[in-house]
Amino acid sequence: MYSLDYVEDTAASEDEQSHFRPVEELIQFDGKKRYQEDISLKAADLATTLSYRDAASADEGFEKTPSPDTIQRRVKEYGQKLSSFVSDHIPSTEAGTVIPDGTKCHSQDDDRSQHEVQLTLAEDDDGETRSVLDVSVNADWNDIAADLDEQDAITDDAAVVSDREDRLVTAFTAEDRDHQLDLAHVPRSLRNRLSVDGALELETRKEIISEVSGELFHLKNSVEKHRPAEEYSAIRKRIARTCERIEKILGN
Known about the structure:
Elements: E1 7-8, E2 19-20, H1 37-49, H2 52-56, H3 68-89, E3 95-106, E4 114-123, E5 130-137, H4 141-150, E6 154-162, H5 166-172, E7 178-181, H6 186-195, H7 202-226, H8 232-251
Helix pairs in contact: 1-3, 4-5, 6-7, 7-8
């Protein structure tokens, strides 16, 4: 927050404004807002990316920290701007790989205990960058997927990479689209499946999960090594070898 003093121009004529704030000639201020755009953006960024404890210790850059109500209003305002920006830029994206995911956060509303924040990303062709296709709160995954289809944001044969949430998978994997479990959820899913019948001891289950995860991360590193040089033959061989080894691990 800034405190500016007026300066009197003693050389001004009678018909000229004699009092002014010189800083305003160099810096653009929105006089209607107590907190300017850069301060609001920083506050909103802290509120949406850090835990409460971390955010409380990260406000050293403020002379005076905006109130929680002010930050909440700014988050809503910027969220609406982001949604509008995304909507204007996603038509005909035709993403070949789509990554939808959701997370729960506590709600202070009287009618619900939690909110579900949903984010859908598109992985660019180079496999190194991602762009936002949709940001929603408490929306139906079917509606999200339908809206993206209507805007040609996803190809008909796109690969859908996510966890195993039934609603999400069903919404996005229509017709020619295949679902792929993301790398982080493979060991979790395998752990659950191995625990269902209790046929294996805990240490045996841990060993299987560790070996399968190791093979998958080996494959991931191999792909990252060979893809920049377009060495697809080497990648296919690595995939085949990984499948064989995983089948052998699970078969034993």
